Amino acid sequence: MNLKGKDRILKSAKELISEKGLQQASVREISKLAGVTTGSIYHHYKNKEEILYEVMDTSLSESHKILEEYIHDKTVNCETMNSDILDNVLKSFIDRFEKDSENKIQLYLTVLGIEGNEEIKNKMIVKYNTWIIDVAQLLTLTYKDMTISKVNALSCVLLATIDGLILQNLIGVDIANNDDILEIYTLLLKKAIPEVINSVK
């Protein structure tokens, strides 16, 4: 199967989850919607979980894309880079709330790992480590006076709050709206953290 066929499989899996939920997104249903045989799917994916992981991995990599942009773009103006990085990080955090299917997959795979699926657990550990390191590297470009260990800790805390907010969103908690959440994150990243850094110099 070519890349186009794999894209169809991933798109179909995402559509099924969005319309019918995770339980209905079986390999058989995915193959029907994608217009490929189950044999074709099993040639590339061992099971449904591998398909789901790839759907999640493909979509939830914004921090890595932002990082790559700043590392490889030599034309970035250093004076505006810090603000741009934080704006992009904030935007990527808020964009996560629009990715219901991928967020459901992340939660589903995380629970599978917690419940003893070692293969999924190891994949999710690697994925979380990648997310944490990518966000930490972006923060290092912005908060130059923070030690690596503190930046790593901040990255863990930021990602944990995003996970918690997404969990609330998935079960229907709607006390806070996205605009207010974005405002709090903006104040945290642009005002509170720099003030804390300056106070401990």
TrEMBL record:
<dbReference type="InterPro" id="IPR050624">
    <property type="entry name" value="HTH-type_Tx_Regulator"/>
</dbReference>
<dbReference type="Pfam" id="PF00440">
    <property type="entry name" value="TetR_N"/>
</dbReference>
<feature type="domain" description="HTH tetR-type">
    <location>
        <begin position="3"/>
        <end position="63"/>
    </location>
</feature>
<keyword id="KW-0238">DNA-binding</keyword>
<dbReference type="InterPro" id="IPR009057">
    <property type="entry name" value="Homeodomain-like_sf"/>
</dbReference>
<feature type="DNA-binding region" description="H-T-H motif">
    <location>
        <begin position="26"/>
        <end position="45"/>
    </location>
</feature>
<protein>
    <submittedName>
        <fullName>TetR/AcrR family transcriptional regulator</fullName>
    </submittedName>
</protein>
<dbReference type="InterPro" id="IPR001647">
    <property type="entry name" value="HTH_TetR"/>
</dbReference>
